[in-house]
Every structure is written in C-alpha cells, then in structure tokens.
Amino acid sequence: MSICEDSRLKDKIQLPDRPDPAQPNLKDLLRELQAAIDSDPDLPDTDKADLLEQVQNLAEAKQTEEPAKKEGLVRKAKKMFEVTLQSLPATAQIVESCGKLLPLILKALGFLV
Per-residue pLDDT tens for 15-59? Predict the structure, then answer.
C-alpha cells in the first residue's frame, strides 16, 4: 500500500471543487501534487510523509481566514518542499512535478511566486 493510500491525509483535502472558473482548481492541483509525491521512486518514505503533510497544510491555508496563519502555513510548506527537493537529483520526477505545480498552487492561494 502506498503512503498516499495509507495516509489519513488523502481525503482531507476538503475544498470546493471549482469556486471560480477563472482560477486554477486548487483541489485538483493539490491532488495532482499528492499523487506525484506518492508515486515518486526517488523520494524516501519519510520525505513523502513530510511532503504529504505540507500538501494538507496548503489545503488548510486556503480555508484559513487569518492572514498571519495562512502566510505561516504557506511559508512552512514552501520551505519544506525547497529543502526536500534540494536533496534530490534535478532529474527526479518529483522535482519536475513540483516545479510545475507549486507555482500554480501558490498563485491559487494568493501568493506571489
């Protein structure tokens, strides 16, 4: 069983499906990121668990109305992704996926990339 399938985090992304058609669908982006993390063979299980927790934090940030808390959740997630990805080869599948998805997720959350 994969980390994502076994994780309580998998179904916790509880966001509206499409609040604004002009915006990227954050829920889909987060699920795509979750799947990329879970399926990457270069990512150790402990790092997978840490990054999956940060995906959940990004979902929580969307629902948080307090600006300081929202910024803290996003900043922590961004740092965790950066540190983890720096330890992997540039050719790792997750590095490419995060390079594509994280800017879209941050933009959908209202943060500059």
Answer: 555 556 666 699 999 999 999 999 999 899 999 999 999 999 999
Instruction: Using CB atoms within 10 Å of the CB of residue 14, give its burial: 0 to 12 exposed, 13 to 18 middle, 19+ buried.
Output: exposed
Q: Please count the other Cβ atoms lying within 10 Å of the Cβ belonging to residue 92.
A: 16
- In contact, 4 and 38? CB cutoff 8 Å: yes
For the chain, the DSSP string reads: --HHHH-TTTT-----S-S-TTS--HHHHHHHHHHHHHH-TTS-HHHHHHHHHHHHHHHHHHH---HHHHHHHHHHHHHHHHHHHHTS-TT-HHHHHHHHHHHHHHHHTT---
The set of residues, in sequence order, having a beta carbon less than 8 Å from that of 86 and lying 6+ positions away, is: none
Kindly report whether the global pTM for this prediction surpasses the value 0.85: no
